[in-house]
Amino acid sequence: TCLAEMGNHVTIADINEKSIQKLSAGKAHYYEPGIEELLARNIKEGRLKFTTSTAQMVREARVIFLAVGTPQAEDGSADLRYIEAAARDVALAMDGPRSIVIKSTVPVGTNKKVAKIMKDHARFPAEVISNPEFLKEVAAIDDFMSPDRVVVGVRTTEAAELMRAIYSPFMRIRDRLLVMDPESAEMTKYAANTMLATRISLMNEIARICQAVGADIDHVRKGVGSDERIGPKFLFPGLGYGGSCFPKDVRALAHIAQVHGIPPHIANAVDEVNSAQRYFFLPVIEKIFGSSLEGKRFAIWGLSFKPRTDDVREAPALDVVRELVEMGAEVFAFDPEAGETAVAAFNAMGI
To answer: Which residue in the list 10, 235, 245, 318 is annotated as catalytic?
Structure first.
């Protein structure tokens, strides 16, 4: 949508007919501030359209972005079935040379896998480029329009120049395009998310130590964040991180390390601290109310993994509610954006 906003003609393809119908009507199937205004404007001006036909999308585009999900597999690795299937579909539909840009978060080596799929199934040459996204939910439009950096992994000068041309409207004040090899681009996304997750888990562990020794974590946070080498961001303690990125990306990086014979001590610790963090408040509840919460009513404000989104994937609040209910409590919960998605998640959990 942001690419269309800058004057490009964009065709979006997806196999989900309901999502395509909603998007074609200018309605998003997820919550993101400002997205429906962009949808409506660009649909009206003829720069943005939607289809369930991969072949149509491929015929109408010179550059094809692959932005499918890479969910976590049982062993912690990234499940590449969807991106491999999408690559095959694109390859079979190609009626001429194309540039294939991987936006999905994928493990190192995926660029080569997609290039092989193109070679095996396409009748025409395809340049495969890695371009991981660094968009935050709730701020995705601002992040795309005014990025901290745009990482592109390429193997040719021509591919680098193509990506520079695509992103030039977003670089008018300062060039933030970082050109590197595809393997480094793939690794950069995992490294960035794991670094941020590490800050969160470390501060949560420090908060527990503060509680034990009588220190004030808020004072400690300010003292630590005032160091310009550290900075104040991602230093607020809480119930831990959630969402669709940090949990699976930390585990995926750990899996990549294990596959290559490197013990992922820090990544594993980050994940373990985060998984345990949401349960540390329960002893406090038991101390105040006892082990049985029968007849007690609790209010929960916020169910998504962070404010102003409807995304409840791996949200700590869901585990909190489940534990309270299992202890006999009656729970009243509210979220201004995530009501429907939370209800679906609770139904799946049997709550």
So the answer is: 245
